[in-house]
Amino acid sequence: MRAIVRDAGGYGNGLEVLDEITYDSLGNVLSETNPAAGNRFKFTARELDAALSLYYYRARWYDPQLGRFPEVVRHPATSDPVRHSATS
User: Fold this and answer.
1) Is the pLDDT of residue 83 over 60?
2) What is the DSSP string of 11-76?
3) Strand 2-7 relative to strand 47-49: parallel, antiparallel, unpaired?
4) What are the Teneurin-like YD-shell domain coordinates in residue numbering (predicted)?
5) For residue 38, what are the contacts with CB-CB under 8 A and spacing of at least 6?
6) Residue 78, SS3?
7) Which are the contacts of 10, defined by CB distance < 8 A and separation ≥ 6?
């Protein structure tokens, strides 16, 4: 679960919950209290591309439906295609 909060008074003593998100173990959103809050950073604080339903992990994409990184990359030492999901 992740809660997005802000300080209501500027003094740290009153927090307002803007959005609360619950995930399964792979990063699929199970529930969200306020999707309109517009927070695109979701599971493990990574950016979710809503159109693709994929998380961006800086150098590669993660598919929570598959539970892995689906793209094929070239291993730098051999230039053979290697699936990240098979090696990580």
Assistant:
1) no
2) SSS-EEEEEEEEE-TTS-EEEES-GGG---B-GGGPEEETTTTEEE-SSSEEBTTTTB---EEE-T
3) unpaired
4) 14-69
5) none
6) coil
7) none
Find where tokens 């998380």 sit.
55
Cα distances (angstroms) measured from residue 19 to each of 26, 30, 35: 20, 13, 7
Cα–Cα distance for residue pair 88/86, rounded to 1 Å: 6
Tokens in use for 27? 């990063």
3-11: long-range pairs with CB below 8 Å, 24+ = 4/37, 4/39
CB 33 within 8 A of CB 39: no
Query: What are 12-42's pLDDT values in tens digits?
Result: 556 777 888 999 999 999 999 999 988 889 9
The reported pLDDT for the residue numbered 60 is 87
* Per-residue confidence band for 55, with pLDDT thresholds at 50, 70 and 90: very high
